[in-house]
Amino acid sequence: MSESEARHPYEDPSLSTEARIDDLLDRMTLEEKAGQLVGMPLGNFERGRDVDEAKELVDEHHLGSVAPFGWGGAFYWTPDECAEVARELQEYAREETRLGIPLLFNADAVHGHAYVKGATTFPNGLGMAATWDTELTKRAGEVTGRELRATGIHQNYGPTCDVGRDPRWGRAHETYGESPYLVKELIGAEVTGLQGEHGNVDDESVIATAKHFPAYGEPRRGEDAAPVEISNSTLRRVFLPSFEAAVEADVWSVMPCYNSIDGEAVHGSRRFLTELLREELGFDGHVVSDWGGVDHLQNDHKVTPDDEASSRLTRQAGLDVISVGMGRHAEHTVDLVESGELSEDRIDESVRRVLRAKFELGLFEGETADPEEAEATLRDEEHVQLSRESIQKSITLLQNDGDVLPLDDPDEIFVGGPNADDLIAQIGGWSIMDEEGVPGKTIREGLESVTDAEITYERGAGVAEYDDVEAAAEKAAEADVAVVAVGEDWYIHEFGPQQDAGHPTGEFPTRTELELPDPQIELVKAIQETGTPTIGLLVTGRPLAIPWMAEHLDALMMTYFPGSEGGEVVAEALTGEIEPAGRLPVSIPKSSGHLPTYFNYLRHPRPIGDDEHTDSYDPLFEFGHGLGYSEIETTGLSLSADAIGPGETVDVEVTVENVGDRASSEVVQLYVTDEWSTRVTPIRELKGFQRVEVDAGDTATVTLELSGEELGVVGPDTPHHVEDGVFELRVDDLEAELTVESEYDY
Fold first, then answer.
1. Which residue numbers in the chain have pLDDT < 70?
2. Share of the chain residues as helix, strand and coil, in percent rounded to the nearest 5
3. Among 7, 107, 283, 488, which is most exposed with the fewest C-beta within 10 angstroms?
4. Residue 322 backbone phi and psi in degrees, to 5
5. What's the CA gap between 13 and 18, in Å, rounded?
6. Mean pLDDT over each residue of the chain, to the nearest integer
7. In whole angstroms, what is the distance from residue 727 CA to residue 741 CA?
8. What is the pLDDT of residues 301-311, one digit of tens each?
9. What are phi and psi of 332, to 5 degrees?
10. Helix or strand or coil: residue 469?
């Protein structure tokens, strides 16, 4: 709406956002305010909920936000129908209501707009983290934001800021891995990509939602949403840095975790949602519930007697929007204010935050989704190429005995395993579940398209069921090389839900098993025993314990859940058309009994002697590991200074040389060990990294800047601070010593 068309000051785009909010808030009834603080999904949520019901809630309860599609139970899956639904609902809200307040549309897009057919998908979290590439992560965020906005979505329920140190957890695959430093660097990049620099959201970007605050990733038993029992210092050292990075990148929204921490259900905790998030970290956007997180307060945590009490508790804690609150929680909010149990000033705070987002997004100026634009934007060729680059840089070559890879023009390639010809498993969770109309090739189809070799195929086994192992082995025996794709299939949360994941609760994949089930292992053994060189592909969301495969197979490659383009890109990596360039963002354990297995464990005594303890960190494959198709040497570690003071930085420089015969890449990784401090610190921590491309025979100089602030420690009560000390710096097997001088008063 132009200045001349404005009927009221809040409709005048020439006024400041705050002036428009003041005017609109003064005109709103209590019921209209309460409505802005609840949302609803369209689709199968408790029961079928359609566009007409959304319009009814807009009329009766002044609904403020909707998840119209872009989630697992949605009714709409194609770009044109998604955009049309968004346009219809938005026009209704703006034209058929008293004040014309637009709706805020949200979706789950954690690896691209993957719940919409034809969208560009990227590797799931761990796969994207394996690129160790912040610029690439930022660009992937830009593509995701552009495709979301083209279908009418304004807010993405992502990025996932959780640190994933427990592979039993069913959401580990959404995370950027086990290193707080790697996670925070990638989170800052993704937030910037989704929203734009400094949070300047435009018509091709969306609101980012940093989730799941403050520590979702380490639930007891690895069980999704179970209590997180960690110390305050662990919270601050491991889990908060990624949220701090999101806030520093001007993230607009934050979502709490489902868990309780230290006995407090986070959705009802003022300590976490106001004191920590707003007062300490300085977040000033709106906080939105994780779907049923508010109702969990009375139904599961049992910290309130009923849903009205939950509504009161979460509002007092600092939550702004109950994402699936619908009319019920809108009514509760009105009743609580009218009874005096909740102040209207508190409600006004939340409404201001929601309206600020809508004004800043330009929604009052009449933006509507265009089905034709949505069709044209999704899967734009540049977007697809970026997805392919992301997959190539994520594929992690774990071992390559005898240089069986890249393949040397074999006449016949056998392809088998449960994930060799399954596009949905290849895309992974938080995405569409029906491959009809979904672009992309499976690994089998990818090999058929990139090589002239004869491709023979036999699945041999499902993820957890037997198929025809003998037939697979017979075909493998006739081939020059065998490629067997094992791992996991589609899942979310606690490896379900059953009706979508296609396997019953408790059947692999499950948190109680990290080892491949018998059907897959027997298939791999039968193929390997034929004597045909065998390559194992791990198409999986999380690291699996595969010691037999590591001991007996000729090559192992981790593809993660690569996305719709993954089949062809994996095939290109196998044939050598491209180089697998990923590095592990998480350790691969030898067994479930070796958990927890992460590289940055805390120092501790060994009371009866070092020789009496097995290794504290003894993974099958270490964090940061990954091979290429050339030979890289790293030499010449040097520091720009031997000592730094408060607020100073030091440049860490190394030389990377490609002594092989083809272009390659390396990820230079800087690890730091604190020789001593007042707090117990990790045995080593990642504090810098950089990806570098090097042609055959060439060298490159890599400089990493290390700040003194990165070398600080935290305590249960003391804030982050830097102490005097000596630090060992290491890149590969190169070492240097750095002295840090501090003004901290012990």
1. 1-6, 716, 718, 744-746
2. 35, 20, 45
3. 7
4. -90, 105
5. 11
6. 96
7. 11
8. 999 999 999 99
9. -60, -40
10. helix
